[in-house]
Amino acid sequence: MAEPVKNSGGRFVREIELRGHILDSGVFGRVLEIIMDNEFARYTIDNFSVGKTATEPSTARLRIEADNEAALLDLLDKLRDIGAIVADDTDAQTEAAPRDGVLPEEFYATTNLQTEVRVSGHWLPVALPEMDCAIVIGKDAARTVAPPDVREGERVVVGHSGVRVQALNRARRRQVFEFMSSTVSSEKPKESLLTEVARELVATHAEGKRVLLVGGPAIVHTGAGKYLERLIRHDYVDALFAGNALALHDIESQFFGTSLGVDLSDAFPVEEGHVHHLRAVNRVRALGGIQAAIDAGVLHSGIMYEAYKKKIPVVLAGSIRDDGPLPDVITDVVEAQRAMRKYVPEVGMALLVGTLLHSIAVGNLLPASCKVICVDINPASVTKLTDRGTTQTIGLVMDVASFLRDIWDALTAVPAAPSAKAGR
């Protein structure tokens, strides 16, 4: 990268630029905070032009000084990661992956923000933004690559020079993903918020994107399965990621009317009901899978029935605690990630409902441009997702049954989702 130069006082100096809606998005304040937190650095604002309208961007140019070169380079790396452009930056540096599934020691770890890399003096967009991955540069193209998927000899970006990210800008119209972002309070006005979520859901379909639901077994336990069935049947939800538990307890409820042995009609345990889920998984395994059970006429209703009938993407990822599991469950975690990544580019909105670990796993795969709603009765669950890097998340502390029921009701008050969806 271009070397920092010394000023007359013997300090190391570089300039950075900020462009876009840097005030209302908080980027400008974050840049100053990072610089001030570094005891070896200080800044001078050389130029600051504020956009005069809601759509006109602002620009700023700052001179950064530090006592030593290492401190300045470390500071520049942090500023790049939140959207600062380092003036006179050089091309991205690369090293060959030493072998399949192994990255160079100093590989650049990606964020989920839109990213560009400088190659031969030109900035190339990096396809498929995802956090905690690497960037591979090929012929006139760059893409994110998960560590297990890198191949020996591929050119992997190392260091931070020649890399810039585009910080998320605040929406230019007042809507739920602007003024309720990262909200987790259980005391917010739910009716108006859910109406806005329903509108965004319909708008997502109008843009030709999928609405993904990531669900946990609480959807079945609370008797909310019927609402999710309706959402799938009427094309409001058109991708489903879950674990063995949601699928198995849904199928148990169709075979026996119970969920983990509890009668869903009166909430009382059923005698010998504790083995119902084992009998359900055994029955499906004997038939060869969920689709086979549907084809045989054994499974004729429920969440999985509606999803398979609609032929929407369904990815069931397993865990070590699974009973069975069902034949459709992917038990190799790396393969499960790959299966989910296949559909991530099609997803415009994700509803993460009643499943902490699955929500975090899927959140890690989604770009920052994807709208995310996380719903859980436990406030710690919704804050944990944001803490792990999915900062665009809106957290709703509420019962999952109430959420799915109220979303269904709200959708009846907005225009119907279009039946034709791009990219299907």
Brief description of this entry?
The chain has helices at residues 27-37, 69-80, 176-179, 190-206, 218-221, 225-233, 244-256, 276-287, 290-295, 303-310, 333-341, 356-363, 379-387, 400-411; strands spanning 5-6, 12-20, 41-49, 58-66, 85-86, 93-96, 114-119, 122-127, 134-138, 141-145, 155-158, 163-166, 210-215, 239-243, 258-259, 262-263, 314-317, 347-353, 371-376, 393-397. With 424 residues, the chain is of the alpha/beta class.
Q: Quick one: overall form? A: elongated
Question: How many separate structural domains?
Answer: 3
Arithmetic mean of pLDDT: 88
CATH class of the largest domain: Alpha Beta
Number of helices: 14
Largest sheet: 7 strands, mixed
Structural class by helix and strand composition: alpha/beta
First and last CA, distance: 43 Å
CATH topology of the largest domain: Rossmann fold
Integer-rounded radius of gyration: 24 Å
Sheet with the most strands: spatial strand order? 6-11-9-10-8-7-12
Full CATH superfamily name of the largest domain? putative lor/sdh protein like domains
Assign the CATH architecture of the largest domain: 3-Layer(aba) Sandwich
- Low confidence ranges: none
Relative helix content: 25-40%
Would you spell out the secondary-structure blueprint of this structure?
Elements: E1 5-6, E2 12-20, H1 27-37, E3 41-49, E4 58-66, H2 69-80, E5 85-86, E6 93-96, E7 114-119, E8 122-127, E9 134-138, E10 141-145, E11 155-158, E12 163-166, H3 176-179, H4 190-206, E13 210-215, H5 218-221, H6 225-233, E14 239-243, H7 244-256, E15 258-259, E16 262-263, H8 276-287, H9 290-295, H10 303-310, E17 314-317, H11 333-341, E18 347-353, H12 356-363, E19 371-376, H13 379-387, E20 393-397, H14 400-411
Parallel strand pairs: 8-10, 13-14, 13-18, 14-17, 18-19, 19-20
Antiparallel strand pairs: 1-2, 2-4, 2-5, 3-4, 6-11, 7-8, 7-12, 9-10, 9-11, 15-16
Helix pairs in contact: 4-14, 6-10, 6-14, 7-8, 12-13
